[in-house]
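From the shared-data thread, chain only:
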Amino acid sequence: MDAEETLNVPTVEQLPVISKIIHNITHTPVLSQNDDVIKGEFQLIPDPVPYETVADIYQSVKITSTPEGQTRYKNLVKISLEDGVEIKTNENLAFTGVEQQGSEIFLQCRRLNKKNSSALLLPMNCVGKFQEYPDRRYYKINKIIDWKMLWGRQRLIKPAPESPMHHENFLIPEGFTGCISLAVSYSVKAVVDGKEIVIPPDMDFDVVEISEEGSKTPVTEKLTALKIYKYMADSFPLKVRIIDTTDKKDKSRTGDCLLILKKQMDKKYLITEMNSTSSKRHFVVPLSYKGMVTRIPRIFPFVYDVQLADDFEGNMKIIATKEFVSEWKELSSFTSGDQFSSMRCGKVPVKIGRKRQLTDVIQCKNVATDADITLPFYAEGQFFEVIGRGVSCTLSDFLTYNSMSCHLKVTTKDPFIKNDPLIHVSAFMIEKQITEECLVAACLQNSCEVFKLPIHRTPYIFQADTNISLKSVQTLNSPVPLIEEVTEDFYYLSQKEYEVVVIPPPLPPRQRTSMVSCVSFAQKPPPLPPKPSKVLSSMESLSLVK
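Structure, as C-alpha cells:
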C-alpha cells in the first residue's frame, strides 16, 4: 500500500487464540477459535488489574444480557452518579447490556448485593476501580473463547480439580497445577480500489479516520444478526438481503429482502416439557401468551425430591403411593395412601451402634392422624401432589400467586398463535424468565410480514443492500407472537449455572465398621498364599540350618 491510500474497513475478524501453558516450561501452540483442542473444564483466574472507567470495561469485555456474558466485578471505591445514586465500596456489580440514549452509550448495571434493585445506567466516563470477581463456575475451552476473552488483556485459566486434560499438540503434565494464558488478536479486512485485502495484526502503520469525508460507496460485507445488533440506533431502518444460512435444512428464506426496523430486548418464559423420558423439549414463550393453563399434580419419587420444590414449605400436601419401612426408630415408616402436610426441613440424630449420625429429614404431619412424622430424604414413596380444583388462567396470572416449579398444561390454545405447540404438551414447567436480544424485521416479499430475529439463534447471513426498493412497504403491523422450540445447548446456556449436576437422593445411614472394611478390602486385597515351591524350599533351608 502506498502512503495516503484510502482504506474502507468493513469488518474486523478475530484470529485463532494463542495459548501458553505456564508450568516450568512454556509451550506456545495455536488454538483454533472453533475447535475444542484442549479437552477438560477450566476456571477463570480473575484479572488482577482493575478497570479504571466504565469505558475500559466496554472496550475490553464482551457484554450481553445472557448469563454467559455477565462477568461480575467488585467496586473498590465509592461512586456517586449524577442522579444522586451511590455505589458503595466493595459492592458487587454485573454488567448486563449496552444502551444508547441519543449520542451517549451507557452500560446497564445490576447490583448483586441488593435484592430486586433496579438496573443502573453507567456512562462511559464513570470513574471507579472495578476488580473482576472470582467466578466459581467451570467452562469448556470453546465457551471461554466465545464469551470470556479480554480485548487488550490476557485471560488466565486453570484446570478444574480432577478434570482430565488433553491437548492434541503436546502432553500436559500429570498433576498439572499451573495455568494457561489465552491471548486474542485480530486482522482487519479492508477494501482498496475495489479489492478486498487482509491486514495482519503485526503490521505497523499509522491511519487517520476520514469517515465523514470518505466515499459513500457501500461495501458488500457479510453480516450476522449479532453484528447488526451492535449497530447504533440511528443506523435503523437498515435494508439487507439474506445471502446464506448456517441451517442446512432450511434455505427457504435465502434471497429474501428484509428491512431491519430496530433492535430491542424481549422478555420470555423458558419452558421445559415434563415427561418420563430423558429427552425433554424446551420452548421460549412470549410473556404476552394468551393460552389458558391449569395446574396438574407433580410426582416426587423420593422425599429428597419433595424438598427440592421451592414451595414445599407452604401449603403443599403429598400422598404416598408406595410403602416404606424404616429400620431406625427415630425415623418414621409410612404406607401407601398416607397423606402429609405442614412440611419443613430438619436434621435428626439417628443412633447407629454406639454413635449418632445426623440424617436429613422432612418433618411434617400425617393428615389422617395429626401425628408428627419424620421422613428421611432417602425414603422412596412415589409421592403424588395433592392440589385443589384446577382453575384455568393465563401464565402471567398464574405466576402472580403460584411458584414457577408447578406443573401445568394448556387447556385452551392462544388464539393469536397459528400453530400453538403447547396444546400438544401433556405437562410442562416454567423454568425462568429470560431476556433475549432481538432484531425486529419486515419481510419485503411477504406483504411486509413483521417478525423478530433472536440474535443468538438466527442462522442467517445478511448483506446490506441499498438498492432494495421500499415501494411495497405500507403500514407495518406489530410482530406476530411466536412459540419456538430451542436446543439443549441454548437451554443450558440460559441457566445460571453452565453445568447442571443431578444429585441423587442420599443413602440411608449405615454402621461405620462395615463401611470401613468394605473400603479397605476394595483398596487393598489380602495377599495371596505362598506357592508350594517356596514353602518346600523354606523347609529345606531350615533342615540344613539344623
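Residues 24-36, 214-218, 496-501, 513-546 have pLDDT under 50 and may be disordered.
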